[in-house]
Amino acid sequence: MDRNILTILQNCVQTLCETACLAVDAQSAQLHISDSLDPWAVFSVVQNVQRHTLIAPMAEDSRVALGDFSAVEVMSETSFVSDLVDLHIDLLAEGSQSRARLVITGAPRSWPSKNRKRCLDQLAGTLSQQLFAMREGPGILASGMLALMEELAELDAGVNTPTLTGFLRLISGRPPTRSQVIALQISGLVDGHDMLAPPMDVSLTATGREIILRSGLRSLPDTDILCSTTLQESTEGDDLAVGAEMRPHARLRIMERDYLIAAHPMTDILHYSCVSDNAWSALSHSNADGWTKVAAEIIQADIDVPYEFVKMHLIRRRDLPTDEIAEAFELLGQVFWLRRVETGWELKLEHAEWSRIDVDPDLPPQDRARVVALHLGRSRTIAVEKAAADWAQRMAHAVQVSPYSEMAAE
Questions:
Q1: If I label 83, which of 33, 134, 279, 359 is the partner at 20 to 30 A Cα–Cα?
Q2: Half-sphere exposure of 61 (CA within 13 A, CB side)
Q3: What distance lies between CA 386 and its chain's CA centroid?
Q4: What is the pLDDT along the chain (410 residues), one digit of tens a residue?
Q5: In this structure, are 113 and 167 located in the same domain?
Q6: Is 16 in a helix, a strand, or coil?
Q7: Burial of 102 (0-12, 13-18, 19+ CB in 10 A)
Q8: Where does a domain end: 119, 135, 151?
Q9: Cβ(138)–Cβ(6) under 8 Å?
Q10: Are residues 256 and 311 in the same domain?
Q11: Residue 382's domain spans which residues?
């Protein structure tokens, strides 16, 4: 049995198309989807599926109500016999623009019956859910893995490694944090990146691309770049595309950031969005798990915890005497020095010799020290990851929750 989740969903879509054909005694059935619905090409290997740059609006003539959906009868393209019709059913429509359409070819004109209408309506609804699952399933699955790692990290801090966490975030469509980008670079999974700039463009190496393809979670586009801005643009409006509108019911205040919480109308899965934008991301926790668990997941997903921890706890030690022209810093009781030399910058730990450190020479002193501290955390010279995780848990316990009101928001 094929355990590839996308292959299972693809087989379900194909079976549903065939069932729709049988339900009305038609000759064939095809699913038409727009490229905007499938930017990752997950449908590229599915039979009976055609991709279109744009799906033209359907005429309003000969519309037959099925229930939640409706079918439009058109003269069959496969026969000149007048008793055959084609049925077009829009599955994911946004206004007059359809993003997915089921086309059943060669159905008898006498097809409408109460049972057949009910059957087509149910099949259309199930197909819509399958399309949503194929579009959002990999991200939701990766988010669930991240939540599982968070639970296990309470028992074993070594489970939640920056490399694995950052890679899962790439699969889920979220940008990795600065510390995770560092870990991914060291592991050879992504190319070089400016550590202080937001990791908006992350370029996979050949090794990283091969691992994602083998995982079966994503079918990658032709480019090796997983760009968070592109991902947000491609998923923006996905909830509208399935006829859903996110209605926030709670506002969370976490570490001076405001988030909205809403349940997806089709799946009841909780989603969160930063107040400043309209990009919704799925959560693996629910209201029943408690707001602390929800806040902890948002912190891990949306906030660069190690960087924010270093930013808050790194101390500039101007009081330490030194014979060198050097800058002294302290983090978690560990002191280190930085000095500029002709070839760049050097690092010195207590009771150690000076060694070269690869860091941007033009960074301000505090920013330069933060990058070095993250490197020291990655090499486990300073226990940044464990301390940052404990600090994030304390921040999650301090979450402030209030009901959300659209009128109050306005």
A1: 33
A2: 4
A3: 25
A4: 345 666 777 778 888 888 988 988 888 888 888 776 665 555 655 566 776 666 666 666 678 888 888 888 887 765 555 678 888 888 876 555 677 888 898 888 888 898 998 999 999 888 888 777 776 766 777 778 877 887 787 777 667 777 888 888 777 767 777 777 777 877 888 876 555 454 556 777 888 877 776 765 555 444 444 433 333 333 333 333 333 477 888 999 998 889 999 988 766 788 898 887 777 888 878 888 889 989 988 888 788 888 889 999 999 988 887 667 888 899 999 999 998 888 889 999 988 899 998 888 778 888 899 999 988 988 888 888 888 888 888 999 999 999 987 644 54
A5: no
A6: helix
A7: buried
A8: 135
A9: yes
A10: no
A11: 307-395
**CA angle (33, 268, 117) in 5-degree steps:** 50
- Within a domain: 10: yes
Q: From edge to edge, which strands make up the β-sheet containing 334-341? A: 315-316, 327-331, 334-341, 344-349, 355-357
Dihedral angle, C-alpha 240, 148, 254, 173, nearest 10 °: -40
Phi-psi region of 315 (alpha: psi -120 to 50; beta: other; left: phi over 0): beta
State the virtual CA torsion across 250, 255, 257, 263 in degrees, nearest 10.
-30
d(CA 362, CA 345): 11
Going from the C-alpha of 323 to that of each of 319, 347, 357, the distances in angstroms are 13, 15, 20
Tell me the three state secondary structure of residue 392: helix
Domain boundary among 212, 238, 264: 238
Task: Tell which residue, 378, 339, 377, 379, has the closest CA to residue 359.
Answer: 339
12 and 130 together in one domain:
yes
For position 131, which CATH number holds? 3.30.450
* Residue 129 and residue 28 share a domain: yes
400 occurs within a structural domain: no
Residues 125 and 185 in one domain: no
End-to-end CA distance of the chain: 52
The answer on 291 and 388 residing in a single domain is no
Q: Helices 365-378 and 384-397: crossing angle, nearest 10°? A: 110
Question: Measured between alpha carbons, how far is residue 384 from residues 310, 376, 391 in Å?
Answer: 8, 8, 10
The vertex-51 CA angle with 36 and 230, nearest 5°, equals 25
Same domain, 56 and 98: yes
Q: Indicate the number of domains in the chain.
A: 4
Which element (helix H / strand E) includes 99? strand 97-108
For residue 127, being part of any structural domain is answered with: yes
Q: Same structural domain for residues 187 and 255?
A: no
